[in-house]
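Pair request: fold both.
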Amino acid sequence: MSNLSASSTDPDTLTPIAADLTALNTFGLASTAQAYVRIVSPRQLPALSALAKRHGRVFVLGGGSNVVLPSTMDGLVAHMAIPGIRLLEAREDAWVVEAGGGENWHGFVDHCLRQGWDGLENLALIPGTVGAAPVQNIGAYGVELDQRFLGLSAWDIERGEMIEMSARDCHFAYRDSRFKHDEPGRWLIVAVRFALPRPWRPVLDYPDLQRHPALASLPPAGSIDTRTALSARAVFDAVCAIRREKLPDPAVIGNAGSFFKNPIVTADRHASLRQRYPGLVAYPQKDGRYKLAAGWLIDQCGWKGRSMGAAGVHDRQALVLVNRGGARAADILALAGAIRADVKARYGVDLEPEPVRP
């Protein structure tokens, strides 16, 4: 295989190369691309559109944290690596910050806090890139990306033009956006803009944060005393500690984080399930529905710590599927299918995978 940097030596051109993608996906699944390009500058985007016409199929790869890659990737793999973080505007009500789509998400959050641009601390340690964050509409510990989102610039690979999108244009929903429904390989998110609220107020509604030793003794969330006694960095540190305790490090054991979405059911469906299963873990939503804890459902079906060949369920977090060594995409998908079947049979609930299958 060629050196991965070889495809981007000229900022205006792109030369596809064969590439090993095993180290470019957090599951650590063995995968090779017949045609790979690394996008490091917006100047390369016209060349990308030209290549797309020749190859027919494009898969946009970010941090590789939300994908189940097959052994062989057909078509063109476009690896987003455009960097850059800058403050666009210091408004009275918000810091307006822009980041390149290739920036590491956690690194971006950390950088913002170092600059005093608070508001993303609840989203710390989520793997992946800034450009992938709107695709999944990432969220954690009481904060969703669309609550901090201002707009983005996306390259329309098919038409060869840059498009500006607002939150409305992105059609955000729970772990969802238009980018998961439009034609595969059409969009490359080049830059994302955020409005980080001023004055800063901590979001501490999530039970794990309320129980964390560094935060548990604080006054009620949202009060003036809490804002005075707490820093965004303290929330960031608490979120990182909680995630490290619950979730395995992909550098140690291959995984893609939470594999399934938490299913959302009607109030009537929730009441029916609660009557049959009093220990059911669920969270009320603003629209009256309930979000069920997928990890609890999987755990109750006896899957925590179990394996099917080289694919397994993490022994501390049932929501995380892991590569125990040498797993292929088919192994992960077979395990996921068995889990979904068991949860459906027992609870009548459909689990939806989060990772993308190219």
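--- second member of the pair ---
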Amino acid sequence: MNHKQLTFAREYRGYSQTELANSIKGLSQSNLSKFEKGFGVLSEDIKKKIISFLDFPEEFFYKRINSNIENANYRKKATVNKSKIQKFENKCKIIGYLIDEFSESLEWPEFTLSPLNVEDDFSVEYIANYTRKLLKLEKDEPVKNIISILERSGIIIYEINDDESFDGVSFITDKGYPIIIINKNFSNDRKRFTIAHELGHLLMHNENYFPISSFRDKEKEANLFAGEFLMPKEVIKNSLRRLKLSDLGILKSYWLTSMSSIVRRARDLNCIDDKKYKYFSIEMSRNGYRKKEPIEVFIDKATCFKNAVSIFKNDLSYSSDDFVKFTLLSKDILDDIFETDKIVKLKII
């Protein structure tokens, strides 16, 4: 049994070592701790009880789910506790693992974008605009179908159902597939910025491509990338001079970005000073825009992962039991990961 898999299964089910030990007759927390560190021994009887209690297929405990989330880049609230982060990251690891497993039977789109190192004399702005050029985006146009153009370029996007603790995460799977996971419960403009932010991380901050200095402010660079990618300086700057509150709705509708990100862009490009930026922040709070902005912008749907599941179900005739055997994951986990939009059935009259 792989001791790291046992730790993964325990954490995925939300149990501490003490809670699991108290649930298994004959298992002590100290013995469990030693086993999970890799130098302890558990009897076969205890192992079987753990496997049954955690409700994972037995073969799962002899696999290795790794996808390095530890070095992943993601936007989250600073106050999120460790156990919540662990639960979220383990779910992301499962998604990465499934993408790798599916690659044995189907071909994911080829990754066609170019990672560039900021330290090799490439500015963040240059990388953002070079990426737009690779994606064949016109300079003066918004990024309309942001999800589909990135999925066609080999980045798999998955919408996760989580609370507001996490915006999104990006990482490279064990087999080298880039993935962006976003929170489906946020507004479309926030999703769009998160996707662009995570795209910046994938292109500029992945050590699979080149070493990254620990002194760089990766979050600042990713935000700068997202701003330039979604609202190119060369085109938007004139619109941000003498910016008024009444302009924000028009700019949001065109660029498909939030009012708050437009105001930040204006400040970053020195189109407004700190005093004017503070004025916008106060007025937006007073109007309730901090909680919910007016105007819902368009965003397209992530289809790559869903299409893969559909191929297995329809073309390869996989049943629920087949998926369990193939992935070595329990049915409840697969049902959660494969969650689809609810369809309202109508009757013919």
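Observation on the second member. The chain has a mean pLDDT of 92.
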